[in-house]
Amino acid sequence: MDKLMIVSDPAVMMGKPVVAGTRVTVELILDKLSSGESIEQILASHTRLTRPAVLAALAFAAQAMRADTIYPTLQSA
Description:
With about 80 residues, the chain is mainly α. Helices cover about 40% and strands about 5% of the residues. It has three helices and two strands, in the order E-E-H-H-H. It has helices at about 25-35, 40-45, 50-65, and strands at about 5, 20. It has a two-stranded antiparallel ribbon.
């Protein structure tokens, strides 16, 4: 049985999804990747993370985007 890699606990980081056993949020991982950091750079700065954990965060985010929700986009001027 696979151990759950992304968890949410109201007592940890206000309930935001985090990598299990850490306080590293899925949001932080996405922010770092979107700003151009590589997975290797993220792993170097967060030594408790693993490549499978980062990939699990990406999979979690992709699954969350499949929800039937309308997301407003920012209009550039």
